[in-house]
Design goal:
mainly alpha
Protein backbone atom coordinates (compact mmCIF):
# COMPACT_ATOMS: atom_id res chain seq x y z
CA UNK A 1 0.00 0.00 0.00
CA UNK A 2 1.33 3.44 -0.94
CA UNK A 3 2.39 5.87 1.76
CA UNK A 4 -0.10 8.77 2.22
CA UNK A 5 2.68 11.31 1.71
CA UNK A 6 3.71 9.72 -1.60
CA UNK A 7 0.07 9.74 -2.71
CA UNK A 8 -0.30 13.42 -1.80
CA UNK A 9 2.91 14.43 -3.58
CA UNK A 10 1.81 12.46 -6.65
CA UNK A 11 -1.59 14.18 -6.66
CA UNK A 12 0.04 17.60 -6.39
CA UNK A 13 2.39 16.69 -9.26
CA UNK A 14 -0.55 15.70 -11.46
CA UNK A 15 -2.56 18.80 -10.54
CA UNK A 16 0.22 21.18 -11.43
CA UNK A 17 1.01 19.34 -14.66
CA UNK A 18 -2.65 19.44 -15.69
CA UNK A 19 -3.02 23.09 -14.69
CA UNK A 20 -0.17 23.88 -17.10
CA UNK A 21 -1.81 21.72 -19.80
CA UNK A 22 1.35 19.64 -19.91
CA UNK A 23 1.30 15.99 -20.93
CA UNK A 24 3.11 13.30 -18.99
CA UNK A 25 5.44 12.93 -21.97
CA UNK A 26 6.30 16.65 -21.99
CA UNK A 27 7.08 16.62 -18.28
CA UNK A 28 9.09 13.43 -18.58
CA UNK A 29 11.14 14.91 -21.43
CA UNK A 30 11.74 18.09 -19.39
CA UNK A 31 13.30 16.08 -16.55
CA UNK A 32 14.95 13.37 -18.65
CA UNK A 33 12.87 10.31 -17.77
CA UNK A 34 10.20 8.14 -19.43
CA UNK A 35 6.53 9.10 -19.18
CA UNK A 36 5.78 5.79 -17.45
CA UNK A 37 7.82 7.02 -14.50
CA UNK A 38 5.64 10.14 -14.29
CA UNK A 39 2.59 7.84 -14.21
CA UNK A 40 4.09 5.91 -11.30
CA UNK A 41 4.93 9.13 -9.43
CA UNK A 42 1.43 10.51 -9.92
CA UNK A 43 -0.22 7.33 -8.69
CA UNK A 44 2.06 7.13 -5.66
CA UNK A 45 3.37 3.74 -6.80
CA UNK A 46 6.95 5.07 -6.85
CA UNK A 47 8.51 7.51 -4.43
CA UNK A 48 10.15 10.63 -5.79
CA UNK A 49 13.74 11.21 -4.72
CA UNK A 50 14.81 14.63 -3.47
CA UNK A 51 16.84 15.37 -6.60
CA UNK A 52 13.99 14.30 -8.89
CA UNK A 53 11.50 16.37 -6.88
CA UNK A 54 13.80 19.35 -7.33
CA UNK A 55 13.87 18.77 -11.11
CA UNK A 56 10.11 18.35 -11.28
CA UNK A 57 9.56 21.54 -9.29
CA UNK A 58 11.78 23.47 -11.70
CA UNK A 59 10.03 21.99 -14.75
CA UNK A 60 6.62 22.90 -13.28
CA UNK A 61 7.78 26.33 -12.07
CA UNK A 62 6.86 25.81 -8.42
CA UNK A 63 8.87 25.64 -5.19
CA UNK A 64 9.54 22.15 -3.83
CA UNK A 65 7.28 23.00 -0.89
CA UNK A 66 4.32 23.14 -3.33
CA UNK A 67 4.18 19.34 -3.32
CA UNK A 68 3.70 19.24 0.45
CA UNK A 69 1.05 21.95 0.76
CA UNK A 70 -2.12 20.64 2.36
CA UNK A 71 -0.48 17.97 4.50
CA UNK A 72 -1.46 18.07 8.14
CA UNK A 73 1.86 17.56 9.92
CA UNK A 74 0.45 17.57 13.43
CA UNK A 75 0.65 13.78 13.71
CA UNK A 76 3.37 12.44 16.01
CA UNK A 77 6.75 12.22 14.29
CA UNK A 78 7.58 8.81 12.88
CA UNK A 79 3.90 8.06 12.35
CA UNK A 80 3.60 8.93 8.66
CA UNK A 81 0.79 6.42 8.09
CA UNK A 82 -1.49 8.40 10.41
CA UNK A 83 -0.84 11.81 8.87
CA UNK A 84 -4.16 13.20 7.71
CA UNK A 85 -4.05 14.76 4.30
CA UNK A 86 -6.34 17.78 4.01
CA UNK A 87 -9.15 18.13 1.51
CA UNK A 88 -8.01 18.93 -1.97
CA UNK A 89 -10.10 21.32 -4.05
CA UNK A 90 -8.03 20.63 -7.16
CA UNK A 91 -8.73 16.90 -7.17
CA UNK A 92 -11.48 17.32 -9.77
CA UNK A 93 -10.78 18.11 -13.42
CA UNK A 94 -13.79 20.45 -13.35
CA UNK A 95 -12.02 22.68 -10.81
CA UNK A 96 -8.92 22.94 -12.98
CA UNK A 97 -11.09 23.78 -16.01
CA UNK A 98 -12.85 26.47 -13.98
CA UNK A 99 -9.55 28.04 -12.88
CA UNK A 100 -8.27 28.05 -16.47
CA UNK A 101 -11.46 29.71 -17.71
CA UNK A 102 -11.36 32.25 -14.87
CA UNK A 103 -7.83 33.36 -15.73
CA UNK A 104 -8.78 33.51 -19.40
CA UNK A 105 -11.13 36.40 -18.62
CA UNK A 106 -10.19 40.07 -18.62
CA UNK A 107 -9.83 41.72 -15.20
CA UNK A 108 -13.31 43.32 -14.98
CA UNK A 109 -15.33 40.20 -15.88
CA UNK A 110 -13.07 38.16 -13.62
CA UNK A 111 -13.89 40.43 -10.64
CA UNK A 112 -17.61 40.26 -11.44
CA UNK A 113 -17.48 36.47 -11.62
CA UNK A 114 -15.68 36.32 -8.27
CA UNK A 115 -18.31 38.61 -6.71
CA UNK A 116 -21.07 36.41 -8.14
CA UNK A 117 -19.45 33.24 -6.79
CA UNK A 118 -19.09 34.81 -3.34
CA UNK A 119 -22.73 35.91 -3.36
CA UNK A 120 -23.90 32.44 -4.40
CA UNK A 121 -21.79 30.89 -1.63
CA UNK A 122 -23.49 33.07 0.95
CA UNK A 123 -20.94 35.87 1.23
CA UNK A 124 -17.95 33.67 2.04
Amino acid sequence: MANPIDLHVGKRLRQRRCLLSMTQQQLATAVGIKFQQIQKYESGANRISASRLWSLARALDVPVSFFFEGIDDRAPSGDAEKIIIGGDVFAEKETIDLVRAYYGLQEQPRRRLLDLAKALAGGV
